[in-house]
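thread: overnight batch results

M.L. [08:02]
morning all. the overnight job finished for the chain we discussed friday. pasting input first so we're all looking at the same thing
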Amino acid sequence: MTTVEELCSNNPIMVDAAEPAYRAAAMMKLHRIHHLPVVADGCVVGILSARDLIGVVPEISNRKGKPARPTKTLDASQDIHVGEICSSTLVSAPSNIGIHRAAWLMVRHNIRSLPLVRDDRIVGILTDTDLLRVCLLGSQRIKGIESSEKLHHRPVADYMSSRPCKIEPTASVLHAWMLMRELEVQHLAVVRHDECVVGIVSDNDIYYALREPQPNADSIDAHSRVPAISLSDVMTHKVISVGKYAKLSLAAEKMLSKDIAALLVIDYGLEGIITRTDLLKAIVTMD
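M.L. [08:03]
and the structure it wrote out:
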């Protein structure tokens, strides 16, 4: 049998609070991760997410709702440090945590990675990928989840959201981001007025759009070009989908193999959306 601690990365990638934010962004992109534990003087003081990095772009930071934290653009020439923008609330768990409890914590706090702690030190980071691979694809055996075989064959329809949030491809990136904030979602289905699905956009797509020049942008300065960037420039056009009667294991396999966090559910039209969080909820309900 395998323990939960053995499933996770035991060489977690962390970032110092004094590091410039743009370097943390580069680390995330290089390692294809979405969260970084933040350390200062050898102690973990918070966690940095892609959403925190979006928050330092003025056009997004200064609007209604949450942060007006630092209002400088995320650029190598700017003096924004990780410690200024990271969340000081770090959700962690003991290294001997059970599989259901770990999945529950991720769902409860809407996180995709869970630092595991022993003797006040992070000894590993358990990710949603680790849990999905074991519980839904059966890559390893772990005590307490022998019943996961039943879960493999459950249909996507049992766990998907049947009312996906939609936006038109002509909308701006700024509009998409504000809609995500308002609806508290991380993905939007991009749908034409005739209900034809033409793409999907995530909060990470928006973040990287603000980091890199786009074809229709007149300026490479994020502050000035945010309102002008069209959603069609940054969304994923080649939609990876799944049918609502497909097995959960197929949904997990597609997400893991393509390194994506959500699938649109399409049969004869847009039926819904299923995310990694939905799959974690399924793990929580395992007998």
